[in-house]
Structures are given as structure tokens and as C-alpha cells.
Fold this sequence. Notes:
- By secondary structure, the chain is of the alpha+beta class.
- It has two domains: 16-109, no CATH class; 120-291, no CATH class.
- It is 46% helix and 18% strand.
- It has helices at residues 6-12, 27-31, 120-136, 147-157, 161-171, 181-200, 203-217, 226-236, 242-251, 257-265, 271-289; strands spanning 16-23, 35-43, 46-51, 58-64, 73-76, 88-92, 95-98, 101-109.
- Helix 7 (203-217) packs antiparallel against helix 8, helix 9 (242-251) runs antiparallel to helix 10 (257-265) and helix 10 crosses helix 11.
- The N and C termini lie far apart (74 Å).
- The relative contact order is 0.15.
- This is DUF2877 domain-containing protein.
Amino acid sequence: MTVGTHPRAQRAHARTDATGAASTALRRLLESPRRPARVLAAFPYGIYLEVRTELEPQVIAVVTGSAVRLPNAMVVTDPMPRVAVGDEAYVGDGSIEVGRLSLRAHRWWNPAPPLGPVDPARLAAALPRLAALCDRSARRPGLEGNGAADLLAEGCAEASLLRGVTAAEQLVGLGPGLTPSGDDMLAGVLVALRHLGTAAGIGRAVWLADWLAAAVTFDARGRTTPISAALLHCAARGEAGGEVLAVLRGLAGRQDLEPALHRLLQLGHTSGADLAWGLRIGLAAVVSLEGRSE
């Protein structure tokens, strides 16, 4: 190769260094040795990367501030690089390399911040308000009227593992899209049970969250999409996106509930409504189990 061809080759492979705000859910993956990944999906405001591991599904969302801040996201200010589904990427040694962009975390944010103590009576009062707001909304969940969803609500309210786990098994992967409706609803249930149960000191709700989490995450990537499987693993640990966390704070009386719920309901085609339905089921279960806590 002649000397004159080197600058062009170097320019073609030059990378742009940038930084972002990363979820702490990504810390272990980013600080692990560098490994290959691939582009699962690419949109103007976000790119989803699947990292090749033998353990739970590892998916990273690289998004701009205009996108939904998922619990497994790094939020950047730079425009998304032009990439296609199937393109190679690399994650580890402190960085994410996708297209011509090389990203490092300049700060971290917590996708599962504790609510702090909450009076169970406050949650009981919040339940009819949440139900009324959801019922009035034109944004409807994708599985409204589904028997498995009704069975899940009944099983959670009674702390019945048989009903709850049976329903959860039927809901994993149910519905179209990158995050099927059944998975979004389950994520809402898991997060609500764990956060609200912990905040109100209702151990039975947290116990139920543990069992349901084990059921829905077992072989999740073989039962649903890689992106949705990763988000189910996040929800199992109580990790959620900003819109979901805001509704939880609204239920706990930390902020106004109605605008927070409105923002959640606007997400996706039915994802926001599915998540809200899951939060409603989880809240109802926490309220129902309050007298049976151990």
C-alpha cells in the first residue's frame, strides 16, 4: 500500500469519543473485559446492542435525551451513529464502541432508587385514584380482557404462587413488538411489588416479587425477544425507567401522580398502558397483602 492511501484509511475508521450518563445496571458489563456485541435495533433516537454472554441476556440501550430512559440505558447528547441491524459493536474495558462512536460513562444513575418508608394507608388511598385515572385514559393495554392477566391479578392479591406463577408463565413473550404486552405488564407488577412492598414494610409482597421474578426470568431469552428478556431481568431486580419510577413516587406521595401517569401512558403503542396496568396490579396486591405481611 502506498503512503498516499493511509490518511483515507485512517479517516474511514476514525472514532468519535463521547461520554454519557449510564445506568448502574450496566456497570459490571462496562467494566468487564471487552467483548463483541451486535446491533439488535436502530432508531433515530436509540440503538439496542446485544452483548454475547452465556448468562442472562445482556442488552444495552444507547439513547439520546429524546428517547425513553430505560433501566439498561446510557444516555448521550451526541447524535446516534448510522448503523444497521446486525452490525458489529464492542462493549467492555469501560467503553461502548458502535459505528464510529466510542462511549464512556461520565456519571451513573440509579434505576432502582428506594422510595423510603410509606404508610400503607397512603397506598390504599392511592389505589382507587390510580384505577380511575387508568380507566379514564384512551390509552388501553394490549392484553385487556386476557384471562392470564386477570389470573395474575387474582393470584397476586391472594399471594397464590400457583395462580401467580401459572399466569406469569402464560404472559411471558405474549404480544407483538420488541417488548410484548405481557412482558411490559409483568415488569410493572414486579417493580411495584418490590418497591411498594419494601416501602410499606409488607414482606409478603416482596416475597411474591422474588418468586414471580424467578419464574419470568428463567430462560427468558428463549421465550421472548432479547430486548424484552433483558428488561424482565431489570424489573426482577426492581430496576425501571424514569417514567415508571415517577409513577411509583406519585403513589408514595412524593410527587403529583396524574402528570407522571400521563407521561407513562404515552410510551409506545401500548407499552406505557401495559406497564401502568402492571403497576396497578402490583399496587392492588400490596394493599391486599398488608394485613398478611410476615
